[in-house]
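Protein modeling request. Please complete all fields; requests missing the sequence field cannot be processed.
Requester role: graduate student
Desired output: 3D structure, token encoding
Chains: 1
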Amino acid sequence: MGRSESALICSDADRSPPGDDLLGNGSRSITINSVSEPHRVIIEADYCADGIWLVTTKEELAATTYEEWRRVTTALYGPPPSHRQWGDRLSDQLLDDLKAWNRSWDGCGGLWESAEADRAWHEQGRELAIRVQDQLGTDGWEVLYRWDERVHRVHPPGSWPADTWEQELLGYPPRGRRKPQR
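Delivered output (182 residues):
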């Protein structure tokens, strides 16, 4: 299990504050208040990661250049914090627990010695997702987690096949058709 490269973004410490021209095309129409869908995070492990990822919005996915993506991301989320990522929204204990959970996956690459160990690790991920949802709240935030071949949502409850959740939940185009051909 690794993160889906197309659906997730890492923190971008190089983001600059939004300027007058957020999209580079004279538009100021994308702001955090104009996003009609909730912000989403997924609790998922990957090498040398923190166990929590922002899920890319349709607006970010539609960006055709890195500069445009930076402008959209900054407009949606504001500049990155100067302190620990997520430290303004999640407790230090929860962040430490997410990091430890991710590190346990790093150690074995997700290849557990038994089915019981695999189930216990996934259960811990589910419990972390519930704790993240509790701390973020349900107003404007959805927390997802992967278990077996499905991606689950904490609140409101929901579940999608891991291979197609991006299309079914997020409305992404099918893989391989993400960017318009020029």
